[in-house]
Amino acid sequence: MTSSEEVDMHDFRRVFFRSDEVPKFANILALDLDLFVKIIRDEVGLSRFMKIFGISDDINTILLCPIMMRFDEIMTHERGYDLASQVLNVCNVHHKKLFCHITYRHLLVLSSDENGCIVLKKVITIADDFWKDEFLDLIAQHAHSLSMHDLGISLIQHVLELDFTKKTTQDDARLHELMAEFDEALSASDIADDQLHKLASKLMLDSDLFVEFVTTRRGSLMIQIILGKSEEIDKVLLAAVKQCFIDVTTDFYGYRIMIRTINAFKKRGNLKVYDQILRLIGVHALYLTKDLDVGNSTVQRAINLHHQDCTTFIACGLQCHYIELSFLKHGSKIVEMLIDDRISMVPLVLIMIEIVKCDEDTLVRLANDEYGNNILKKTLELAKEHRDDFFGDLVDKLNPLLDSLRGSLGENIVAIIDSETETVKDRIVSQGNN
Residue ranges of the PUM-HD domain (predicted)? Predict the structure, then answer.
């Protein structure tokens, strides 16, 4: 069926015009995926395939299966666009939606390939409003990584030019007008940095407007592709991020603007901005930790960097609140990550000090709490391993409470203290015998 094979055109026409032969032929193609891909990638093969595809919904159903199974391989080939166009032109609504769904699932792969990106733009353009909204949402979620390469930026620009995307902000007149100014600047064939710099400066002068802008899908996409265009623009946007740090880092899209800002400066070799952002996370650690949606995740990601200064900043930012956070599911997660991060002993020392100073009632509640119990147990184990002096203080603090903890969730705490007591007794007996 390809140009490299001796195929009798008469036989092909016979199959094509006999309705009973076409389904059999379609099934044969669908069963051999390697052959199917070979045919699609061949000019003559694709031409003949497209004469069959579209004959009926049943034939389309059969032939869509191998397309879906080898989607990336087919759509990133130079002939993928022609096939995608055929699917979108001749298929029924159900099959078109299915094709949109498969394209949506492969968005990141397609966006990083020149041929795939062309297919992706085509599908987004013809998709219904439901799928346009889904694509817009997914692109906004991954805009920070898409904006790191030219194809990704071109995809973001394509989405921003769609009427559907522009309609998403029309309910807010002030915001919509400002975005229209950005649209005009970004759509110019020769984008002027000074014009974008003026618009970025306009955003910075109004903190509320900046937050509203970057926390919308459309606004965040615009900022993603503006960042990195010039150092002057980046400095203005960095100042705005710092000024509205809490609002930015506790928002799904705003957080990605912060990451993109860091990356823009790192690309120029400026690592100071990275340290400044980490310091700000530490300064606002308590507020961010209590924000369950994005802020808490921001702190977790910062701790996972295993950056000594960053861990210390966060540890100090949470000082005097470790026990309070240990009663909370998300708060205890942060506390556990901090004391587990051996790159700094500061978090362990700070929580041990809090426990030693804690009143007895709170300590009993902590030992019997679902989350607090784990923190107390881990603190005791780490203190015994790394800080004997503090471990002794913790044992002295907990000893009077052991009877009230027996038979409760705090039984594991009792076991640790009893084991240590027995160890000390054995050591004393051993020394006495010597």
Answer: 79-421
